[in-house]
TrEMBL record:
Organism: Mycena chlorophos
Signal peptide feature range: none
Designated name of the protein: WD40 repeat-like protein
Pfam families: WD40
Keyword Metal-binding included in the entry's annotation: no
Matches recorded under SUPFAM superfamilies: WD40 repeat-like (SSF50978)
C-alpha cells in the first residue's frame, strides 16, 4: 500500500484484512496474499479512512465492511459473491455523510440488536438500525458537550437494551447511553487519564485504555478499578498509541512513536517482546482479534489475530512517506523452551491419570476381596 496507514481490521473469519489511510481503503486476501478488487475510495472528497468495522451477522455469510472517513462520510462495501466465483470482488452498497462533517472517530456494531453506532470529532453520537447491510432508521443523534469522543463500545445488557459506552479523549470520561436517553455528565465515570484508544473484553471483565502520556492501563470493567499499568516509552511527543487485547485477553499490544510494537503479558505485566517495524517511525495503529473467541477490536499501524490457530500481527508505518508503505507480518513461533514445557506438562498430566487409575484399580480389587467377604461360622 501507499502513504500513511491509519486503521486496520481483520474480517470475522480471518479471510480478509482491511486497511485504511490517507490514500483510502484497501482489502487484502490473506490466503492469496494479494489485494482484492474494491471500489475507488474517492479519498480526495471523503478524506482519509479513519475507522473500519466488519459487520458480523449470524444470519448472513456475506462480508460487509463499514468505512468512516476524515470528512464525516460513512461508506458500506459488501462482498459480491455471485459476480465472480474465481476472485473476491467488493461493491459499494451505500454512502452517506453525517450532518456535521467532522472526522469519524469511532464505530461499533451490536449483532444482537442489529444496531450501528458512530461518533465524530465534533462530539455527535448517532445510532442506526440496520436491515441486512442497509440503514433502516436513525434511532437518535445526541451531542456531548465539552467532549471529543475517541471510541465507542457496546457494553453489557441493561434490561432489554445493550449499553453504549462513549469514551472522551481529553476529559477521560466514559459516558453510558441507555435506550434513547441522551448522555449525561452525571452518569459518566472517570478513568483518571486521557484516552487514546480502548479495548473492551466483556467476557473476561477487562477494559484496556491507552494513555498517550504514560502507556496502557487495564481496569476491572464491572468495578471500574485500575488493575495494572504498562509503561510505553514516549521518545518524541504524546501521541495516540492504540492498544488491543489478544489471545483471549492474555496479551496486551500497544503501538509507540519509536517504530516499535510492544507486547505485554496482561496477567503478570511482563514485557513479552518488542516488534521492530522501523528505526524511528510512528506505529500508531494496534488491533487484536482472536478467531477462536470471535472477539474483534479495531485500532490504528498494527493488527493482530489468529490464522489457522497461529497468532499473527500485521504492522505498518503511520506517517506520510514518499514510496510504498510495506505491511509487515509477524507470527508467533513456539520456542524450544516453551515446547519442552508443554511436553513436560502433558507428561505430568499423563502420569497423574495413570496413578489415579492404578489407585482406583487397587481399591476395587481390595474392596471386592475383603469388604464383602462373609465370615463362615464354625460348627
Amino acid at each position: 500500500m501507499w502513504a500513511r496507514w491509519l486503521c486496520s481490521l481483520l474480517a470475522p473469519d480471518g479471510k480478509y484484512l482491511a486497511s485504511g489511510g490517507s490514500d483510502g481503503t484497501k482489502i487484502w486476501d490473506l490466503a492469496l496474499r494479494s489485494e482484492v478488487n474494491a471500489p475507488a475510495s474517492s479519498w480526495a472528497l471523503r478524506g482519509a479512512t479513519t475507522q473500519l468495522l466488519w459487520l458480523k451477522r449470524d444470519d448472513d455469510t456475506t462480508e460487509a465492511l463499514v468505512i468512516g472517513t476524515q470528512a464525516g462520510y460513512l461508506v458500506c462495501w459488501s462482498d459480491d459473491v455471485g459476480k465472480n466465483k474465481d476472485a473476491s470482488v467488493f461493491k459499494q452498497v451505500w454512502c452517506r455523510q453525517l450532518a456535521t462533517a467532522a472526522e469519524i472517530t469511532g464505530l461499533a456494531f451490536d449483532a444482537m440488536t442489529n444496531k450501528l453506532a458512530v461518533c465524530n470529532r465534533s462530539g455527535v453520537i448517532q445510532l442506526y438500525t440496520l436491515r441486512g447491510t442497509a440503514i433502516r432508521d436513525e434511532v437518535f443523534s445526541w451531542p456531548i458537550h465539552n467532549c471529543v469522543p475517541r471510541s465507542l463500545e457496546f457494553g453489557a445488557m441493561v434490561n432489554n437494551e445493550r449499553e453504549l459506552l462513549v469514551f472522551g479523549t481529553f476529559c477521560g470520561l466514559v459516558y453510558p447511553i441507555r435506550g434513547n436517553l441522551p448522555p449525561s455528565a452525571t452518569m459518566a465515570w472517570s478513568l483518571g487519564c486521557q484516552i487514546g484508544d480502548v479495548a473492551l473484553d466483556i467476557e473476561n471483565n477487562v477494559l484496556c485504555v491507552n494513555d498517550p502520556w504514560t502507556g496502557v492501563d487495564t481496569f476491572n470493567f464491572r468495578e471500574k478499578t485500575t488493575v495494572k499499568s504498562f509503561a510505553v516509552p514516549m521518545t518524541k511527543s504524546a501521541r495516540v498509541r492504540n492498544v488491543s487485547l489478544g489471545e483471549k485477553g492474555a496479551i496486551v499490544v500497544s503501538g509507540s512513536d519509536d517504530g516499535v510494537a510492544f507486547v505485554f503479558n496482561r496477567r503478570n505485566g511482563a514485557l513479552v517482546t518488542k516488534l521492530r517495524v522501523d528505526a524511528s517511525d510512528w506505529v500508531q495503529t494496534v488491533a487484536v482479534r482472536d478467531l477462536r473467541t470471535e472477539k474483534i477490536k479495531a485500532l490504528t499501524g498494527l493488527e493482530t489475530g489468529d490464522i489457522k490457530g497461529i497468532p499473527h500481527i500485521f504492522a505498518a508505518k503511520s506517517r506520510e512517506i514518499a514510496g510504498r508503505n510495506a505491511i509487515f507480518v509477524y507470527c508467533k513461533k513456539t520456542t524450544r523452551r516453551r515446547f519442552l514445557a508443554r511436553v513436560a506438562a502433558s507428561f505430568k498430566m499423563v502420569v497423574h491419570v495413570v496413578v489415579c487409575l492404578a489407585a482406583l484399580l487397587a481399591l476395587y480389587q481390595n474392596f471386592s476381596v475383603y469388604a464383602f467377604k462373609v465370615p463362615v461360622p464354625r460348627v
